[in-house]
């Protein structure tokens, strides 16, 4: 059994799992560890995610922070599990992650911070975790009130929902969101208008900093069509912006 396999097995031990079930906050940092074990990139990244999956309990944990993961593009499956009751997530310095999983499925998530995800280029529709349903209302991010993106320099597109999804009474998106912050994401030029209109009844603060393109689109002329497109149903929405 290799050193990595032993680490996975240790994380799965019943005694450790029992202890972890009592935790409310868990911080997992890969900084200073990834180069200590000489494994192939594929097997190493897969096993590291197995370690994370084994460490994180689904029911008691309220706050999770993953930092410095630089050996793979996959985030743990628990990030899109509706059985996960985490209230706060921090994703920091994930240098290989290029897309985000269906975090919108998490039923109790209130705060999400995405910092220094260097290869992130597209936040796709899968981020919301919307799946087809019969008669039930589908709610993406049902409890989220604060969403922050910081220093995602290559992030170019935040995919919007469709016109049908915006008009559908069976789909609710971020109904509790009050604060959206986008800081130093210099490649992003446009926000998802239909998505934000869907969430606009609760949104109170839109903060844009360090993105000249976004400030040019939304901040320089508050009477312009782009800003009106977002704020037309929510006169209480406040825009705060700084180009740098």
UniProtKB/TrEMBL annotation:
<protein>
    <submittedName>
        <fullName>Disease resistance protein RGA1</fullName>
    </submittedName>
</protein>
<dbReference type="InterPro" id="IPR056789">
    <property type="entry name" value="LRR_R13L1-DRL21"/>
</dbReference>
<dbReference type="InterPro" id="IPR032675">
    <property type="entry name" value="LRR_dom_sf"/>
</dbReference>
<feature type="domain" description="R13L1/DRL21-like LRR repeat region">
    <location>
        <begin position="9"/>
        <end position="114"/>
    </location>
</feature>
<dbReference type="Pfam" id="PF25019">
    <property type="entry name" value="LRR_R13L1-DRL21"/>
</dbReference>
């Amino acid at each position: 059994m290799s050193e990595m396999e032993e680490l996975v097995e240790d994380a799965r031990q019943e005694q450790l799992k029992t202890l972890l079930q009592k935790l409310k906050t868990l911080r997992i940092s890969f900084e200073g560890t990834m180069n200590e074990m000489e494994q192939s990139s594929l097997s190493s990244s897969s096993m590291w995610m197995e370690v994370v999956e084994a460490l994180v309990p689904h029911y008691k944990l309220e706050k999770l922070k993953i930092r410095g993961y630089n050996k793979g593009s996959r985030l743990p499956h628990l990030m899109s599990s509706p059985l996960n009751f985490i209230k706060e997530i921090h994703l920091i310095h994930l240098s290989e992650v290029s897309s985000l999983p269906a975090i919108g499925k998490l039923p109790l998530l209130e705060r999400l911070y995405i910092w220094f995800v260097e290869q992130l280029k597209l936040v796709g529709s899968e981020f919301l975790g919307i799946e087809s349903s019969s008669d039930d209302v589908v709610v993406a991010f049902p409890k989220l009130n604060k969403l922050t993106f910081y220093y995602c320099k290559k992030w170019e597109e935040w995919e919007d929902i469709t016109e049908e999804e915006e008009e559908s009474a069976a789909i609710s998106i971020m109904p509790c969101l009050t604060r959206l912050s986008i800081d130093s994401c210099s490649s992003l030029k446009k926000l998802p208008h239909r998505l934000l209109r869907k969430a606009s009844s609760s949104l109170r603060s839109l903060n844009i900093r360090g993105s000249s393109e976004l400030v040019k689109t939304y901040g320089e002329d508050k009477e312009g069509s782009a800003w009106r497109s977002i704020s037309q149903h929510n006169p209480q929405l406040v825009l705060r912006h700084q180009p740098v």
